[in-house]
Amino acid sequence: MLLSWLQQLGQASWLMPAAVGVAAFGAGAWVLVGAIRARRSPDELERRRRIRIHVAGRMGEATVEQADEKTLHYSYQIAGVSYSTSQDIAQLEAHLPAKAHLLIGNALIKYHPQNPANSILICEHWSGLLAGRHSIKREEERI
Predict the structure, then answer these.
(1) Domains of the chain: total
(2) Cα angle: 78, vertex 84, 86; to 5 degrees
(3) What is the pTM for the complete model shown?
(4) Hey, how many other C-beta atoms are within 10 angstroms of the C-beta on 143?
(5) How far apart are CA 110 and CA 61, in angstroms?
(6) Judging by DSSP bridges, how do beta strands 71-78 and 105-112 pair with one another?
(7) Are residues 131 and 93 in the same domain?
(8) Which candidate in 39, 66, 104, 132 could, as Cys together with 73 as Cys, close a disulfide (CB 3.0–4.6 Å)?
(9) How far apart are CA 2 and CA 37, in angstroms?
């Protein structure tokens, strides 16, 4: 019974157009998903990177060397390799103290285990900033 059904299926004239239609639908869905991903703003991509590192990252020690309202410059060492980098903190101002210079000093970082150069000091859900922890936050200053 199954064999006869397969033989009939092979002779069906609708089989080739249906296969082409399924393939076209799959390709269209793939292109649509790619277009949606391509529309993400740089700020959204950076936010997603920070969250990914927060969730899957390992912790280490760092030193914040310079701080202003938009950027933190810090250095750290992983497995004998020294890294010196910065993090854009413009989107995270509500999580920071009112005076950026209070952030200079020791801190904790989270870094990607396969790429230690990919690191963060702070994200929306976590902060490794030890200095300035008890100072007035920017949102509290406005009250």
Answers:
(1) 2
(2) 120
(3) 0.67
(4) 5
(5) 9
(6) unpaired
(7) yes
(8) 66
(9) 44
